[in-house]
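Forum > Structural Biology > Help requests

Title: Can anyone predict the 3D structure of Ribonuclease BN?

Hi all, first post here. I have the sequence for Ribonuclease BN but no way to get a structure on my laptop. I'd be grateful if someone could post the structure tokens.
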Amino acid sequence: MSDPVENIKEEQVFQSIINKKGLNKDDILNLNWDRFVVYVDLRQKGKVVQSGYNDFTLILKEHKGESKNRSLILVVSESSKLKLDNLLEIISRSKSLNLDFFLAIVDKYGDITYYNMSETRLSK
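Reply #1:
Sure, ran it for you. Structure tokens for Ribonuclease BN below:
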């Protein structure tokens, strides 16, 4: 069984850049660059990352080879609009999977700001 970390598109492009191999034009054009920037940032920090459940999410794992997931990361551009209902749905999904939730906002310069978010119920 192959390691899920090795199956991620970002990993293939990342390794191609490191190994100075030629990249396929379609691989470059179809890549979510904001997610790629977050992926590279997390890898540079020594984190183990794999694909999330869609093109805008990543899963942060405890250790390579370990099946336990640690966090769900939603990657958005600072110029994109995000509906509150969608955000609450993703937070709820991460809570049901027992994952911490982070919102990674990528600005136009590629700088990333991470926000740890959770659902809170206020008592009356």
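Residues 86 and 92 are 10 Å apart (CA to CA). The chain has a mean pLDDT of 81.
Shout if anything looks off.
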